[in-house]
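Continuing the series of single-chain predictions for the mutant panel. This is the parent chain; the variants come on the following pages.
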Amino acid sequence: MKNKTKALFLTLCAALIALSILTINLYSSQKEIKQSIANAEMRLSSDNESTVPSVKANYMSYEDGDNFVDAAEKTVNTVVHIKTEVVSKGNSYYDFFGSLLEQLYGGQMQMPNNVSVAYGSGVVISPDGYIVTNNHVVEGASKIEVTFNDKHKRTATIIGNDPSTDLALIKVEASDLEYLAFADSDEVKVGEWVLAVGNPFNLTSTVTAGIVSAKARNINILGDGSTIESFIQTDAAINPGNSGGALVDMDGNLIGINAAIASRTGSYEGYSFAIPSNIVKKVVEDFLQYGSLQRAYLGISIVEITEELAEEKGITEMSGVYIMNVEDRGGAKAAGIKEDDILLSVNNIPVNSNSQLIGVIGQYRPGDKVKVKVQRKDEILVKEVTLKNLEGTEEMHKEGESFYNEVLGIKVRPLSSSTKSELGINYGLELVEVREGVFKQKGITDDFIILSVNYQKVSSENDLKKALNADRNGKIRIEGTNSTGTYNITFEFYR
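Parent structure:
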């Protein structure tokens, strides 16, 4: 019995000693274990024991989170809620029968008006009440109501709006407002943290966070090739109602105006797009100084370089864009740029896509000079290009400037922003003076707006010239409306 007790005692002692050694070893390697866990690869085991190498995600510290708070506090009082009312003056059914009954029985008929209400966002950019938003938020609005974060409301007027950039500048009567400063959007980096502030689903003062996913995106949402699309893409949640709101950096400075989402449902699915602040700033300055957007053109047609194009043209490097055509009246030709050149950069900003080029040139006006780097075979050349307008001149046109057209015998001017808004259109020319010619023969002397010529919409002198030169065997078709948009006129004549 004594021997069994002694054996059991010795066994227990040995076990305790082994456990102590194990505990000491585990304690001594605790730091190594923790470090190993922090840096461990994620192993996805299978029957074949294959793995996918990965590292553990880095989480923001509380200090980093404070940056979100600071940026949000700086921004939230500068982003406003916009409510618009758009009045539609009847429909084709009422227009048809209304005009018919008027012809049969005389007198005037009151057509029913339909009022639709929409919501969006805007960003205060000056203490005296200038607010930038999207054109599609306020286009055609008969009334614009702005609500600030402290709940007070103001009625706004449109200073300028432009469909090609989807930007609009509105103003309220106010002073000492909090406002956002413009940051340099060219300096924004992919992967940088950003905040989106706006009013999604009519939920005021909503802040979401994400990163810059890409730059110079063209998603073909604004229409034809005359538009300026070079969006900042972000994964910050943006939904209907965010349009016109702010995209800010971690210092709370404006780097973009939220404009669109890529979605199959109409709501956020991870892809959001903002107009870069450098383009926004330039457009705003155009509205304030000239009343309308001043577009500058390089005067070239380009395509992106693909493997197929590189093989066909003997291009050894894939950077830059290939110049297919150089326009005769453009600044590029005057500077000595040629077809088959490869455009590498503009003012030291690399250009590898059409949207990048549009984004860079969209920051300038006719008459501005830019340094364009091109490759011609094995030679690198830097050309100073003076940018021009669509007409091939360096002139800028102020809103409301009139011009005379000899073919039609009329003096016209582009529609003002207020008239465009009232009629719910973004194009047109209004009569200023009627001289001897077709319009006088047709009895059209005033209160007429030209909407299209030969089926082409017109809003400038160049538009009118191009439309009149369209080949229709000498026949010219004019479509227009009156200043209130209550009746339309169409007529044709031969030159």
